[in-house]
Amino acid sequence: MKNKQRKSSNKSALRRFNDWIHLWLGLISGIIVFIVSITGCIYVFQQDIKDAVEPWRFVEAQNTAFVPPSQLLDTAQLHMPGATATGLTYSNAEGAAAVGFSSMIDGKRSFTAVFMNPYTGEFLYKQQTIGEGTFDFFRFIIDGHRALWMPYEIGRPVVGVGTLIFVVLLITGLVMWWPKNTRKSSLRKSFKIKWNGSFKRVNYDLHNVLGFYSLLLALVLAITGLVYSFEWVGDGIYYLASGGEERPGHSHPHSNLDNMNMAVSDSIPLIDQAWYKTLEVQPTAAGWYMSPTLADDDDVYEVLAYLNDGSWYNQNVYYYDRYTLEPYRWPGDRFSEAGLADKLMMLNYDMHIGVALGLPGKILAFFISLICASLPITGFLVWWNKKKKPKKSDKPAASGNQNAKGKISRPKVVKSNAAIA
């Protein structure tokens, strides 16, 4: 006990405050950090798992062009009568096309995707992932990751605050980890796990050493997640990266309303013409996305071309006037031409789930998330082991002398004559 008091008194007031903050913030946020981290760990490979267990996502590659968007929309509408298409995607040469239908029914969101062969327009499968009476495993996982399975208006701020606390824990943890001296023995303890040590020692090293090695990438995952929880985080990153500029909100060009009464004489639907115009300047891509339904009179046709297979940040966006199909350019519509701040915003999601670096990035994100999930557990055990009182058998004898062999011999009691009497 005296040794512990002596070690504590040797620490500065700032260091003691740092340790106190790390302990209590860790105990408060532990369950949130664990759920967010373990669900993120599972979600990293969601696309790979879906590809392995959902055969309708693939078709046999053919040496022919894809059918136009209008044909896919007509086929999908047959299987979703009365619903409004909200998204249309083409994949790569071996991927199925899909039309998505997202809506709100009695205040609850519903989403269904209709998969089709992009070469023939043939129906393949209808899959509902959100809605009453449906269960989708990865939807369950992402709901836990984003909102702890609570209503989003409640759960998302809780996750945001928990993630913000986790960032503080990473910084205070680094202060606690920092070696007191540079002696080889001290450095070895800071950088290596003593696997042949006691359970307490191994647990301490798992928390201390793995926490250090995962620090930088854990910060990346946490900060990119905070962008979705708090606007001020994204605004701050953009401000710093751009040298003092404000982050623009989501914006796009608008169709010229002066042309809204123009008669369409061409028999080819305008959405197909927009598709063909895009193919003229962007003949190949790893994937495509279109907004097939234009809600407002000044909306434009929007075609996104994803240039890297399996990721979304490297994209070119093409806009067309809905009446004249005049092409429009817009700030940030090409990743390759964007400034640093805009590139960081485009990269945010891909960095958060690891796909920006392809398969190696996903593997790295998986293990970093797994380590982050372990930190609240190992940290709690470190605190609990320190909090427990020593067993009676561990306490030294209250009296007696210890000989060279470690045995305790009690002093002989000499009775006085008075006692005998």
How would you describe this structure to a colleague?
With 421 residues, the chain is an alpha+beta fold. Strand 2 and strand 3 form a beta hairpin. It has an 8-stranded antiparallel sheet with strand order 4-3-2-1-5-6-7-8, with helices on one face. A two-stranded antiparallel ribbon has the order 9-10. It has a domain at 2-44 and 156-245 and 361-387. It is elongated. Helix content is 49%, strand content 13%. The model is unreliable at 393-400 and 411-421 (pLDDT under 50). The two termini are 45 Å apart.
How are the elements arranged and paired?
Elements: H1 2-10, H2 13-43, H3 46-53, H4 69-79, E1 87-90, E2 97-105, E3 108-116, E4 123-130, H5 137-147, H6 152-177, H7 184-191, H8 199-213, H9 215-229, H10 231-242, H11 270-281, E5 287-290, E6 300-306, E7 315-321, E8 327-328, H12 340-353, H13 358-387, E9 401-402, E10 408-409, H14 417-420
Antiparallel strand pairs: 1-2, 1-5, 2-3, 3-4, 5-6, 6-7, 7-8, 9-10
Helix pairs in contact: 2-5, 2-6, 2-13, 5-6, 6-8, 6-9, 8-13, 9-10, 9-12, 10-12
Region (Disordered): 389-421
Transmembrane segments: 21-45, 158-179, 210-230, 363-384
InterPro entries: PepSY-ass_TM
